[in-house]
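ok here's Transcriptional regulator, seq below lol
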Amino acid sequence: MYSQKEYIELLKQFPPRPIKSEEDLEATQKIINQLLDKPQLTAEESDYLDVLCMLIYDYEKDLDIVPDMDQIELLKVSSKEHKLKHNKKNSMAALRKNTINQASEFDHNSWFLSNLST
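and the structure came out like this:
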């Protein structure tokens, strides 16, 4: 049974507010970690956790921490930033290191190499 009183107590202990700094983020994350360390959450704690996670999401979505790109594009950008030369040996080593060993309907190596040069 949902207890409004329990939820209000959670709000009193750490009132959710928009995150505006790294200090706010760390404080919110600390409370989230405390909740996640519990073996089982009450319905009230689960709702409270959702609210705190939404606050972190809202804060981080505007930061542009890491651009959203696929692995090939990330490898190209990283290579350019570090002024690395592409060659078949390095590309194949990177492919083996970063590809899950699963059977596939297409040849990963040829696909990787053809996309690397674009």
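fwiw The CA atoms of residues 22 and 59 lie 10 Å apart. kinda neat tbh
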